[in-house]
Amino acid sequence: MKSLKENGFSADKIVENGNKFLIGNGYLGYRGTLDEFTAKECVGLNIAGLYDGVKGKWRETVNAFNPFFCVISLNGVPLDVRGKEMLSHEAELDLERGLFRRETKFLVGKAHVTLSSERFVSAVEEDLLCSRTRLTSDMDATFFVKAGVDPDIWDLNGPHFTDVESRISGSCVEVKGRTQELGIPVRVACALSHSLQNFHGGLGEFSVRLKAGETFTFDRIARVLVGEKVFSACSYERAYKAHTEEWARLWLLARLDARGDARAQFALDYSIYHLLILAPKGRYSIAARGLSGQTYKGAVFWDTEIFLLPFYMEVLPACARRLIEYRIDTLPAARKKAQDYGFGGAFYAWESQNGYDACSDFNVTDVFTHRPVRTYFKEKQIHISADVAYAILRYYERTNDDALMLGGGLETVLSCAEFARTYSYYNHIKGRYELLDVIGPDEYHERVNNNAYTNYMFFFTAKEGLALAEKFAKKYPARFEELLLSLPEGILQNLREWTEKLYLPKPDAEGVIEQFDGYFRLEDVSVEKVRSRLCHPNEYWGGSGGVATATRVIKQADVIMLFNLYPDKFSAKLRRANYDFYLPYTEHGSSLSRCSYAIAACGIGRREEAYAALLESAEIDLKGGGKQWAGEVYIGGTHPAASGGAWIAATHGLGYGRKGDLA
Ligand code: BGC
Questions:
Q1: Is 443 marked active-site?
Q2: Model confidence at 97: pLDDT above 80
Q3: What do you get for the CA distance between the two ends of the chain, in Å?
Q4: Cβ atoms < 10 Å from Cβ of 341
Q5: Atom of ligand 1 nearest to the CA of 442
Q6: 556 φ, ψ (degrees, to nearest 5)
């Protein structure tokens, strides 16, 4: 399998390449930056599931101290890719082995020097990361190496550590601190193959005398230790062997064959690589921007259940179970959120940080006034609970894992349905339950009534939940009685009645289901026209005064998502009519959108469109695509949902849960 290689260096691409060349192991992510870079160049060692909030700022995942900082100098000239001494530079992401490499050649005075380094985040041990640096020169020369653990951290809403201390013992360097909010100790310890002198603030130096043609090798073995864990070193070779063997195993499970289509093959390999480096090892889940940094607060969205879970169910079932367990573990928090808003059941966090909803009331900052914009994602994007339930239902369908269902899965599904029931309003005139004041997947239209996706998704949640309840009542009567005790009295009967009267928007004469009440009355205008109305490139399209708000232009697949998730419930004719209707209005302002249309296109026989959308989705991080700003808020990083969505389109072309024919 090929590697991703890039020749030359451009300072403009530092942030983009940090994402593009990311390595990780589900727990730790190390951005694709260079050894001589620091916080200024967005070096990031991101930790999954560890959050910290600094007063007055957004709570987000924590980035750890950087164990791989290293600047090597010759005659006072640093070997820095940005210096005029740089002759050539190549960065490489070895997809097959999960390795990042760089090789840079310099001319310092008359000496031709080659600096190369390689690093990996162990696929076997979750807290381990290793780096090997090599240096050669065509003349005898003495080099100075500055290395250690750099305590300077790139944060969006930091700093997250207090009481930062560094120490050295033999050739092992350690920087430790405590998170601000919870005081959780985090240490980054690194064993170096050479001892440091003049140690100060985590860094020190040593010199190396090299003969012409000789190679100097410098290894670093680091661990990120959260809590009171103990450091243990190992040899680079051993860690490398275990790591690469594990990657070989992973690819045996995960590889897809694109039948000789080199472009699609590489795009899919790259997407799968990203899904593999996010596979959780413990009871945490996957953030919307993966391990590429703190964007979106390192929080877990519906992206995981709807766009990522299918891959893990198929390829790494144990990880899929972990993702489901994460939602079961956070059921108490979802119940509390429902209660806090005056509802029953379970209302999942829109942006989950171990259950806590990190979504701000003001998730966007206006580019003109620089004022926070009130957004209602947290309160109104209630479909998150249906998405969580959907994932559990599909997982169960695939695995028949009764233990998981009895251990909280079924309770979660029924609690999600119960939440929607208590959220709904009974319209006495029309004699039906309605879900009013919600936000569907299309975030540009906030606080709408009867979003088709939301209503149908909860309808199916309740229906499927009830069917399972019946099954479990028969199969495990005693356990089921017990389970019912943790749910509101009469829940099953209430849900039965509710599903009979829940309003499900029907297709119009052309077979199109209105996205929400009154959507058809909005201004009928093209995406391009709406774009031309922008006064600033980073202007937010939604909210109360956005350019899309009063129009039919939508951010992402919405009604179409419903068909992707329940293809069998809607005829191909209906799916085609809706696809043709909504596609021209879709801005694809979310990376979740193209792949959704790719999946939809497969299901209605639009192979060419499906192929184009699939590639666009799979290549998003290769091309540095996707929006970088929502108003004044940075939203860059990797796009795991696009990778996962591309994978679904390629493997289950007829929709989630059904094997297709596009692979
Ligand atoms: C999308 C959401 C998505 C979130 C995280 C937003 O831009 O509208 O659907 O969950 O990004 O990826």
A1: yes
A2: yes
A3: 18
A4: 14
A5: 8
A6: -155, 170
Q: Which two structure tokens, joined as six digits, stand for 342?
A: 């005056």
Place of tokens 């289950």: 652
Which whole-number Å values give the CA distances from 142 to 146, 198, 233, 280, in the listed order? 13, 18, 28, 44
Q: Which two tokens stand for residue 175?
A: 């920087």
Instruction: Tell me: pLDDT of 531 over 80.
Output: yes
- b vs e for 236-266, b when ≥16 Cβ sit within 10 Å of the residue's Cβ? beebbebbbebbeebbeebebebeeeeebbb
Output the six-digit token pair for 57. Answer: 């700022």
Burial 486-518 (b: 16+ CB within 10 A, else e): ebeeebbebbeebbeebbebebeeebbbbbbbe
Collapse the DSSP code of 279 into the 3-class scheme (helix H, G, I; strand E, B; otherwise coil) and give the result: coil
Report angle CA 307, 154, 222 to the nearest 5 degrees: 85
Instruction: Read off the pLDDT of residues 1-38 as tens digits, 9 standing for 90 and up.
Output: 689 999 999 999 999 999 999 999 999 999 999 999 99
| Tens digit of each residue's pLDDT (9 = 90 or more) over 240-282 | 999 999 999 999 999 998 888 999 999 999 999 999 999 999 9
Asked whether 205 and 198 are in contact (CB, 8 A), the reply is: yes
pLDDT over 70 at 435, yes or no: yes
**Residue 590 C-alpha to ligand 1 middle, in angstroms?**
6
Tell the residue nearest (CA) to atom 5 of ligand 1: 288
In the set 443, 464, 616, 619, the catalytic residue is: 443
Q: What is the pLDDT of residues 577-628, one digit of tens each?
A: 999 999 999 999 999 999 999 999 998 989 899 999 999 999 999 998 777 7
Q: Pinpoint the alpha helices (H) of 551-632.
A: 559-565, 572-582, 593-603, 607-618
pTM of the model: 0.96
Tell me 306's DSSP state. I
51 lines ligand 1 (CB under 6 A): no
Those residues with Cβ within 8 angstroms of residue 230's Cβ, 6 or more apart along the chain or in another chain? none
Q: Give the closest residue (by CA) to ligand 1 atom 9.
A: 441
Q: Is the CB of 660 under 6 A from ligand 1?
A: no
Contact status, residue 157 vs residue 55, Cβ threshold 8 Å: no
Q: Which CATH architecture has domain 255-653?
A: Alpha/alpha barrel (1.50)
Q: How many Å lie between the centroid of ligand 1 and the Cα of residue 289?
A: 10
Residue written as token pair 């700022």: 57
Q: How far is the CA of 530 from the centre of ligand 1 (A)?
A: 20
Tell me the backbone φ, ψ of residue 306, rounded to 5 degrees: -90, -35
Ligand 1 centre to CA of 280 (Å) is 20
Residue 530 pLDDT exceeds 60: yes
pLDDT confidence band for 631 (50 / 70 / 90): low
Task: Decide whether any atom of ligand 1 lies within 6 Å of the 196 Cβ.
Answer: no
Q: What is the CATH number of domain 4-251?
A: 2.70.98.40
Q: Write the CB contacts of 99 (distance below 8 Å, at least 6 apart in sequence).
A: 23, 93, 118, 119, 120, 244
The C-alpha atoms of residue 288 and residue 285 are separated, in whole angstroms, by 10
Residue of 259, 254, 288, 249 whose CA lies nearest to 272: 254
pLDDT exceeds cutoff 50 at 217: yes
Q: Which residue has the tokens 């012409």?
A: 212
Dihedral over alpha carbons 277, 5, 239, 251 (to 10 degrees): 50
Nearest partner of 375 among 367, 365, 385, judged by Cα: 365
228 near 108, Cβ under 8 Å? no
Q: What percent of the chain has pLDDT over 90?
A: 92
Write down the domain spans for the chain: 4-251, 255-653
* Helices 410-423, 331-340: inter-axial angle, 10-degree rounding: 10
